[in-house]
Structures are given as structure tokens and as C-alpha cells.
Prior knowledge:
By secondary structure, this protein is α/β, with parallel strands linked by helices. Helices cover about 45% and strands about 15% of the residues. It contains 22 helices and 15 strands.
Amino acid sequence: MQRVRAEYQPKLPKTLQHTVKVKQGDATQSVADQEEIQKLFPNTYGLPIVEFEVDDAPSRVEEPFNVGIILSGGQAPGGHNVVSGIFDGIKKLNRESRLYGFLMGPQGFVDHQYMELTAGIIKDYRNTGGFDIIGSGRTKLETPEQFDKGLKILEELNIKALVIIGGDDSNTNAAVLAEYYKAKGVDVQVIGCPKTIDGDLKNKWIETSFGFDTACKVYSEVIGNIQRDCNSAKKYYHFIKLMGRSASHIALECALQTQPNICIISEEVAAKRMTLDNIVSYIAYVVSERAKLGWNFGTVLIPEGLIEFIPSMKQLINELNDVLTEHADEVASLEEMERLQKVHSYLTPVNAELFKSLPKAIALQLTLDRDSHGNVQVSLIETEKLISEMVEKRLEEMKEQGLYSGKFATQHHFFGYEGRCADPSNFDADYTYALGYNAAMLINAGLTGYMSSVRNLTAPTEEWIAGGIPITMMMNMERRHGKMKPVIQKALVELNGKPYLKFASQRETCALNTLYQYPGPIQYFGPSEICDRPSMTLLLEHDKIS
Length: 546
């Protein structure tokens, strides 16, 4: 399979198959906090959106130039094809251009750990999953010392541009780096590529982040398998937690593909100001109603970040983030019960009361080490077990009241890493290759502080629109480590958006019936309508299905 798959030639938009010229649009501004963002990015703020068009002038050979790349953050299917696209793009412009990869993420850039990526090396990684061609890492590029150390290796290797392939935080770092070099008058360009399986890096010009399509298809295959088993054994409720800390795009897409009995959407929980008790009551209601029909089985999808979207829990977690940042050394040295008591003593009365009411296991998980952004590591919180245990307790109470007479046995699953490094779907293989090739054209156009943008993604690949958008236009100010910082605004599930409305329209029917869908494995060979099909989220957003 890997040998045959390596021979797949990703399709490019028609524009990128020719010599291109730049068409500039209007000046841009950030999505929020315009005054603050402009002050922080005086040299790269307000740049225009650009779109590539076919250049009718005779083709020409450009001067050779060298490019460096960083794979940043968690893996996402298609990263290797971004690298392949950049390589092919710069070689198309001039065969003497060279590509360097910094090893194990941004830290390799700072520590001058790199390798040249040649045709022979890249050949073995085309159309494969993972980031193992050079590795990835989560080091944040945010200090002048890091920027200056990185600049030394860029100058040593005569690198004209650095491409950062990452998510919202990694591309925020790309914007900061581009601004820093521009302010210093250094002739180094910085380009970003939109990567995250979570799907929360998107807007009008970034219609989807790469890896989302593949990861959702992987998860949906396994959910379908579980649902087939569920419908065969007819004795378990499967509580399935899905990756996605900051948004529920993965859970929503998987629900659209598989039609489970229940899917909780975090953004809806926040909008309706639902409590944990509200969520438990809803699930218990569905379980009891299915029991009346003789169905003591079902599937429940839960977004990874659900607990942060429950308003009261979100307030508690925000304060915990600040408390644990300020008192990190003091709290880290304490035993479990002492740690809980100490953290409790620093909380405001309302949050202290909520914290004290939580089960010990969940309270401890909320006090674990923070991630690199200073946030609670929600993937370590077993939300699916917490909710199923609370549902079980509620059903026992209902049984005592004569309101429930079914059986309730559970299985728990967390699908996260399983989808990160899958071989990319044809859609992601094409999309990532186009993003990389397009990044090479942005570099050749002399741009910096831009994100590679390929859109019109529900049309045939030849009709995709290539270009770039200023990263600053996606930014707002958010609190990180207790301080306000510029970051790319995360795209949440829109409750008036067509994907959510489609899900909501069939929610009750799916809850009280067994209408499971079984997507099966990703198809690489066969009819285009099956093999090249993008996510249902994209199809619904672009009115391609109803």
C-alpha cells in the first residue's frame, strides 16, 4: 500500500500549474482588537489579501533561493505533502533552489539542528502520514533571543524564507517572527501553513485546516465499527471522547458521518449556559426513553474540551490557570490532598465551592501541569468517564422512583492520536500539496507574514483558488499565562451554521432510533465521488449537500 501510494501524484489548482502573477486585494485588519494588534505589528499589519492568476508572459527561470521549514505542534495528516509541495514548487522555479528542514520543531531552528531535504529523501515520504521526515515539537518561538539565534543559521544557510507548518499558535509565532525580522530590516520572509486536525483554524480564506478531513474519516470509521458492534451485542453504551480542546468541529463532523444517538456540542453548552447536571439529565433521558423501546445500548460522542465550555467550569478553570501559574512551585511539591487544599485556599468563594464539590479524581486532574500555553490539559481529564458515572448515578435514582427499568453498562474510548498520523485522504493529499506549492509561490512573490491559502475546496481541484492572507488579519488579544497576548482567533462551531443546523435537525430522530451509519475505511482508489470527497462540514457550508 505504501509503495503504490507513494506513486500518487497530487492534483494542483490550474493556476499553480502555470507561471503565476499576484493580484492584490484590499487592505486588511484584524478580526478584533485592531488598535492593539496594529501597535504590535506595525510593519506587517494591514497587508492586502493576494490571489494568484495565470501569467500569460513567457515562462522564466527565477534566481535560485533556499527555504527552511519547521513542522510545529501536533501532527496532522498531510504534513509530508506540504513539504513535498514546497520542494517541487521551489525546484520548478529554479533547480538550484534548496530546502532545509529544522529537526524536531522550532527548537531545531533555535539550536541549529537541521538537514537538507533532497529529492531522494522526500521520495520516501510523499502521501504518507506523520511528521517523521524531520520531526515536530511544541517549543514556542516568542523571544528576541530565539529569533536572533535562528537568524544566524538562516544567514549561514543563505535561507531566504522560513515556512512554519502549524496551528493557530504556531502561525501566531510565524507572524511575530515575520514582524521582528521586518522591524530589524532583515531580508528573511516568513510564511505559515494552516495545520490542525481540530478544525479550529478557519475563516473565509482558510476554509479548512489540513488534516481535519483525514482525522475525521479515521475516527468515523472506528465509531462506525463500534456502532456495528453496539447494534450487534445490544448491551453497552459507548462513551466516546474525541480530540478537539477548543472547538467541537471533530465531534460534529463525526456525528454527521455516523449518526450516533447522542453528540454533545461544546459551543451549544456554552451558548445555553448548560450545567454539568443539564448534560447528565439529557443523556439519562435518552437512555431511559431507549430502554422503553427495549434498547439498552447506544453511542455518545463527547468533545475533548467539553468541560471548559460549561460556564461555571470555565470560570473555575480560568482561575485555576492563573493560580497554578502564580503558585506553580509551591503547589507542585505537595501531596495530593495537600495540593487540593492549597489550591482551594487560593480560589474565590464561588469557584472554591465548585472545586470542592468535584470528585477527587477530576479535581486532581484539573491541577495537573499546564500545557505550553498555560492551559489545563483537558485531554488528561477523563470527561467521558465522569459523565457516564454521573449518568449511571442519575439512572439509579430514576430507577428508585420507578422512572427507569433498563440496564446500563458502559464502555469508554478516547480517539485522539489514532487520527493524527494516518495516511492523508485524497482530499488532504491534494490540499496539503497545493498549500506547500502555493507557499513556494508566496515566497517567490516576496511576501512575508502571510499564510498559504487555497480555497473553493468543494469544487474540482483544478478550480481551487490559490493565494495568501496576512496572518495578522486572523488575530485578536487573549489572556495567556495571566497576560494579554496577540493570538490567532480560534474558529468555533457556529450554531447558526449549516453543519450544526443539519446535526440539530436530526438529533431527536437519531437519539430515539438506531440509524447508525458505517463509513468504513478511507478509500484511496476508485470513483472520485468516493475517494476525493471532502468533509461533510465543507460540503454543507458550501451548499453541496442539504
